[in-house]
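Same chain as my last thread, 279 residues:
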Amino acid sequence: MPPSRRPASPVLGAAMSAIGAASDGLVPGDSRFRHSFEAPLARIRPDPDQPRKRFEPAEIAALAATMAAEGQLQPVLLRRDPEQRGGWILVAGERRWRAARHNGWASLLAIEHGGDAALAALLENLQRVDLTPAEEARGLQRLLDERGMSQAAAAALLGRSPAEVSATLRLLTLPAEFLERAGTLPRNLLVELARLEAGPLRDRLLRQAEAGSLTVRALRAARARPPAGPRPPSALRITLLRALAGRLERRKAEGRPLAEEERDHLLALRRRINALLDF
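reply #2:
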């Protein structure tokens, strides 16, 4: 007679069910994805090579309010800090990090990034945050310099046309001081300015752009206008010179000696005429 089977323990069955449900949520060892974790804010520092340099306090405060109400909806990207054991450097998400500090949070949801940190930071900024045209141009130039990448390769990577990448990089031909003050100028206006050769015309248009009185249409009209040459003499000036010459001839024809005052005026006039002829 076969031995009788003991009935299954309801406690053991419940435990096995809980273990099975929990295992469904565990990260498999061969997962292709990097998974999020909580990183202490005190151990995170921003990347000194971050392409974006300007962070408006009002924008950070608005993001902090959203995160306080809705939570952190997207993790930041971090890489290990080679100078601090257990420390991290931001690859992407500095606005979220600043907003978390604004809220007084102790930690931040993060994902470790082990790839090209500079490339990831640039792509994150270009795709998610509105850089100023100057910041965008400097970031693209750094990508080309540090990675030995061609403009065509950068354009393909960013999903842009080679002409757009070339126009953005050309912004760096403008004076650095002007670019620092040009954060609010339209990008298309800056591109048109960058197409001008350095010289008096560009200097004048740069001043107009900073004053807010330059449009793309006016800039193109100024560029198409032929350079100003020497002004032709006006008919009025020619008439006056001929009248003066006639009066002098008539005075000479009179044959009378010059008065002292007349001589002084004529000598002064001679000096001015000589100076003008030598100009």
